[in-house]
Amino acid sequence: TGFRAPSLSELAYNNGPFAFGPAASLALDEETSKGFDLGLNYYGASGLELGAVYFNQLIEDEIFFDLINFFGYLQATGDSKSTGVELFFDFPFSEQWRVFGNATYNDTETPDDLQRVRRPEKIANLSAEFRTLDQRLTVLANLRYSAASEDELFGVGRLDLDDYVVLDISANYQLTERTEI
Fold first, then answer.
1. By three-state DSSP, how is residue 95 classified?
2. pLDDT 10s per residue in the chain (181 long)?
3. Are the C-beta atoms of 84 and 61 separated by less than 8 Å?
4. What is the model's pTM?
5. How far is residue 15 from each of residues 62, 77, 133, 166, 168, measured CA to CA in Å?
6. Which stretch of DSSP H or E encloses residue 149?
7. 40 Rama sector, left if φ>0, alpha if ψ -120 to 50, beta otherwise
8. Residue whose C-alpha is closest to residue 146's, from 103, 109, 86, 110
9. Nearest to 116 by CA among 84, 70, 155
10. What element of type H or E holds 173?
């Protein structure tokens, strides 16, 4: 079980000059949540790690910012849900190379039986890491994928977001024991 009190920012916004309509002076209650996850991990002698996790979360009285009318912070009446599965792996296939990743399926639902906004249904990451033998240089490439997500926009309402793929590449080099670039 979980508990999240309204933040000072959320309370101040609703009691300030920018909130109007149903959000103006709305006394926000705390969010509460109930959930569980069940996971299974495998650790191989070669360093291979495989895992699977099932998760199920129920959020009551979710606090959210109204991005359609910009009234302010509102509170959902009812339960928001999130259930899904995550699979992951990590494989150091040599002393210098490692590949790892994860894939998540997340089925979400608002009290109005709609998909929760900005909660992609499908997410995947695939990464490769190289380290020099002296451990001073690390190069990392990470490919991220996100699909089946919705948003709410002022004057438009709900809309499907485009699926996307992002490639991040980074490098770190340790100059001295206390300095890294």
1. coil
2. 899 999 999 999 999 999 999 999 888 999 999 999 999 999 999 999 999 999 999 999 999 998 888 899 999 888 999 999 999 999 999 999 999 999 999 999 999 888 998 899 999 999 999 999 999 999 999 999 999 999 988 778 889 999 999 999 999 999 998 999 9
3. no
4. 0.82
5. 19, 20, 58, 39, 41
6. strand 149-153
7. beta
8. 103
9. 84
10. strand 164-173
Structure token pair of residue 174 = 């340790």
CA dist list (Å): 44 to 15, 60, 93: 56, 40, 12
